[in-house]
Specification:
- The chain has eleven helices and 16 strands.
- The protein is α/β, with parallel strands linked by helices.
- The chain has two domains: about 130 residues, Four Helix Bundle (Hemerythrin (Met), subunit A), CATH 1.20.120.420; about 210 residues, Rossmann fold (3-Layer(aba) Sandwich), CATH 3.40.50.10470.
- Strands 6-5-4-7-10-15-16 form a seven-stranded mixed beta sheet, sandwiched between helices. A four-stranded mixed beta sheet has the order 11-8-9-14, with helices on one face. A three-stranded antiparallel beta sheet has the order 1-2-3.
- Bound molecules: 5-S-methyl-1-O-phosphono-5-thio-D-ribulose.
Length: about 350
């Protein structure tokens, strides 16, 4: 798959493959400003925690560029306000805040006198982050491949693939890693109501790679497990608390409960940047509520009688005790997660 996040320095614009249109149409949504990037994040033109982080880094570049061109006075205050707005575009995926903070770190370290110089520094950093993310996913794939056996069928929820990262994927990175290691792996993609990331995106990118994939309704999970059709579950993450509690797409917690019931291993695959050490456990993870329309309608057609309210929580939190392992670029972390997470973070800093 060619890069779905592409920054054009000539036109100073960010090209994003518009994931709302997949699998029937491949066209780009072009961001010329940070406000375009915020719109792309909020409307889920691009989604998935690591992809959100990389996109936000490019959003910082566009913010600095506009500030350099248009602000005669206190450019630092103007840019600071813009970055605060960008970091708030979506609340659950911690990679968004992480990416903006990393760019702020570059700003603080260099302390340039003018915003044009900062734009250049931001450009280099965003490019580095995008390249790093692919390498991190490949490392996740390398470590995760050891958890899968030749002939396994892996169930995944939502899309934690190339489209949800800068490339290769986290959960799908584990699957790609196993396939690259010569194992025959088949995938069951939960359709993932209401945005249908599993049916539209996971199935699309695996089919492109010729990895066998079957789409199942979310509510088929128990039956599929009971029938012995699932050997392992691998999902991504939007935020992992210090104790291992993991926020991921709504429905993930239910899959984890079923996996425990049927004695099926349940793995989370995510970069270390998805771990939020500022929070002790999952109760502190903010859960995004998205527009009712996503639940009320399918393909523009109303499903729910007028006046009947709906729930549209976009994420849930799987308690650490239901997770068999967390696959990171530093290896597979095991219980007790507070200790293994602290060790992985120390290693990364070293
Ligand atoms: O609302 P989304 O599509 O951004 O949610 C995405 C997920 O929940 C993914 O599983 C998660 O971000 C991991 S992406 C590698």
């Amino acid at each position: 798959m060619k890069p779905h996040i592409r920054f054009d320095t000539g036109e100073m614009a960010l090209h994003l493959l518009d994931q709302r249109l997949l699998p029937t149409e491949c066209s780009d949504f072009v961001c010329h400003s940070m406000d375009d990037v915020i719109r792309a994040l909020k409307d889920m033109v691009v989604r998935g925690a690591p992809a959100i982080g990389v996109t936000a880094a490019w959003g910082c570049v566009l913010a600095a560029d506009k500030t350099a061109r248009e602000t005669a006075g206190d450019w630092r205050a103007v840019l600071d306000d813009m970055l605060v707005r960008l970091a708030a575009a979506r609340p659950t995926a911690v990679n968004l805040r992480w990416a903006v903070e990393r760019m702020r770190g570059v700003w603080e370290a260099a302390a340039p006198d003018d915003c044009e110089a900062l734009t250049g520094l931001f450009l280099r950093e965003a490019d580095a982050m995008q390249k790093e993310d692919v390498e991190i996913c490949r490392a996740i794939g390398h470590h995760g491949a050891t958890l899968l056996y030749d002939g396994d069928t892996v169930l995944t929820h939502c899309n934690a693939g190339a489209l949800a990262t800068a490339g290769y994927g986290t959960a799908l990175g584990v699957i790609r890693g196993a396939v690259d290691a010569g194992k025959r792996i088949a995938v069951i993609a939960d359709e993932t109501r209401p945005f249908l990331q599993g049916a539209r995106l996971t199935a699309w990118e695996l089919a492109q790679d010729n990895i066998p994939v079957t789409v199942a309704c979310d509510n088929a999970c128990a039956l599929l497990m009971q029938k012995g059709l699932v050997d392992c579950v691998v999902v991504g993450a939007d935020r992992i608390a210090s104790n291992g509690d993991t926020a991921n797409k709504i429905g993930t917690h239910g899959v984890a409960i079923l996996a425990r019931h049927f004695d099926i291993p349940f793995y989370v695959a995510a970069p270390i940047s998805t771990i939020d050490t500022r929070i002790a456990d999952g109760t502190a993870i903010p859960i995004e509520k998205r527009p009712d329309e996503e639940v009320r309608t399918v393909g523009g057609r109303d499903l729910v009688p007028e006046g009947v309210p709906v729930y549209n929580f976009a994420f849930d939190v799987t308690p650490a005790q239901l997770i068999s392992g967390i696959v990171t670029e530093k290896g597979v972390l095991r219980e007790p997660y507070d200790a293994s997470i602290a060790r992985a973070l120390r290693e990364r800093t070293a």
